[in-house]
Amino acid sequence: MKSLSETWFADGYIDFESKKYSLLAYLQQINRYFNENKLYPQLGDLIFHFNNLVSFRDNKQYLQQQFPKRLTAVNIERLQLLYEQIIADDELMKELENIIQFAMFRMNTAIKDGTEIYEFVEDSLRISPVGLIPLDSQEGYFFLCDGRQQETLVYEYRLSIFERHDEKYRGIHTEYLESFAKDLVHSCEHIKTTLIKKRKKLPNPAVYRVETKLTFPVNETLLPIAKRSLVKYIANNAA
């Protein structure tokens, strides 16, 4: 997917019609993916651009604090120089404000559409432990199953906690391992036993089953939402 640059609204000649065209072309692509129930990375990218506009509108100093991983020092400096320029140019400031206002409205509408899909998928998920869960559930395995009733996808996971802007966040790193045919032989308990025998580094792993009766694109939708849902589930059920 062709994305917008981090500073698309300030790149080149600041003209409402040209920026509007670029934005609508971008959102058309986003909506095409959403219509196929594909959320990622499109939804995350869309939220990034929306928050970027909010931060630029409210206070340029927030840019570096909010998005240290995406905005480079060059882009930060460019946006700061732009602020100095528009202060002295009422017409330019008005044009930029019109662009930002229009873009935020359109992006917010698209974010709502994506969020509705996200919540629908999230509500369809059912998470349950496979066997007894050890006291340390920071790493283990989870089994992902959807409505196709064909296979069980097996992932290893590891939770982490990181701090940003005086807040703590839980993250999850996952690695796809293998898949098993979904049949009477390969029950979740059987798969768990097989993993313990094959992978000695986790002799007593936490194992969870994440399933839905519906069918969604795995990598673009089901897996990202399953990962976030599992993080919340483990946090809420921590001893």
Attribute tags:
single chain, 239 residues, alpha+beta, five-stranded mixed β-sheet, 7 helices, 5 strands, elongated
Q: Order of helices and strands, N to C?
A: HHHHHEEEEHEH
- Report Rg: 22 Å
Q: Strand content of the residues, in percent?
A: 15-25%
Portion in helices: 40-55%
Distance between the amino and carboxyl termini: 42 Å
- Total number of helical segments? 7
Shape: elongated
Largest sheet: 5 strands, mixed
Main β-sheet, spatial strand arrangement: 1-5-2-3-4
Number of E-state strands = 5
Multimeric state of these chains? single chain
Q: Stretches where pLDDT falls below 50 for ≥5 residues? A: 61-69
Q: What's the average pLDDT?
A: 85
Helix/sheet category:
alpha+beta
Task: Describe the fold and architecture.
The chain has 239 residues and is of the alpha+beta class. It contains 7 helices and 5 strands. It has helices at 16-35, 42-58, 62-66, 73-87, 90-124, 188-198, 218-236, and strands at residues 126-129, 139-145, 151-164, 167-181, 206-211. It has a 5-stranded mixed beta sheet, with helices on both faces. A hairpin with a 5-residue loop joins β2 (139-145) and β3. α1 (16-35) runs parallel beside α5 (90-124) and α2 runs antiparallel to α5. It is elongated and about 70 Å long. The protein starts with 15 loop residues before the first helix and ends with a helix.
